[in-house]
Design brief:
- The protein has 164 residues and is mainly α.
- The protein has two domains: 7-98, Arc Repressor Mutant, subunit A, CATH 1.10.10; 101-159.
- It has helices spanning 11-22, 29-42, 49-56, 60-72, 100-128, 136-159; strands at residues 47-48, 76-80, 92-96.
- It has a three-stranded antiparallel β-sheet.
- The longest helix is centred in the last third of the chain and has 29 residues, at 100-128.
- The protein is elongated.
């Protein structure tokens, strides 16, 4: 995969750095995602870790860590290259597993999980304060309403068709 137009160092990388943060990873995963998506759309081929290192400029260790994180999230999938000739262990070729919609929904689900954890914290605070009426009760009610409304809106976004 070439980077003749500088896309991996420009707006495409910045976009995928934001996507990486959206799904809960470091922005360092952005260039890896950008490389894999661009390769998928340009050629339909998979990339080896060496290819990923070459296009991103990352060391093997850094690329390997990011690849492992992306695999654990189910964003990419690795397959052994049994067409590879020679002795030794067969290299692994990586590709995006699914579509951009799947990655977007992964980010939405991550937000829903974090908001759910906030709701548990609110319930814990209320349980600790049971029976007491003071200025904290209205504040907790306001927080609960905001968090609940956001969870509901995100759940509707994750199931809705995204158009633009």
């Amino acid at each position: 995969m070439g980077d003749d137009n500088g896309f991996l160092r420009g707006p495409v990388t910045r976009l995928f750095e934001k996507v990486s943060k959206w799904i809960g990873l470091s922005t360092n995963a952005g260039p890896v995602l950008a490389s894999l998506f661009m390769e998928s759309y340009e050629t339909g081929n998979r990339m080896s870790s060496d290819d990923i290192c070459k296009t991103t400029g990352y060391s093997r260790a850094n690329a390997g860590l990011i690849i492992s994180q992306l695999e654990a999230l189910g964003v990419i999938e690795g397959r052994r290259d049994y067409d590879q000739t020679g002795r030794g262990r067969k290299r692994v070729l990586y590709a995006i597993d699914g579509s951009f919609r799947d990655i977007f929904n992964l980010g939405v689900m991550s937000l829903i999980d974090r908001l759910g954890a906030m709701m548990k914290d609110i319930r814990s605070i209320e349980d600790l304060r049971s029976g007491r009426e003071d200025s904290l009760a209205p504040m907790l009610n306001d927080i609960r309403k905001v968090v609940r409304d956001r969870i509901e809106s995100l759940e509707s976004v994750s199931s809705a068709e995204i158009t633009r």
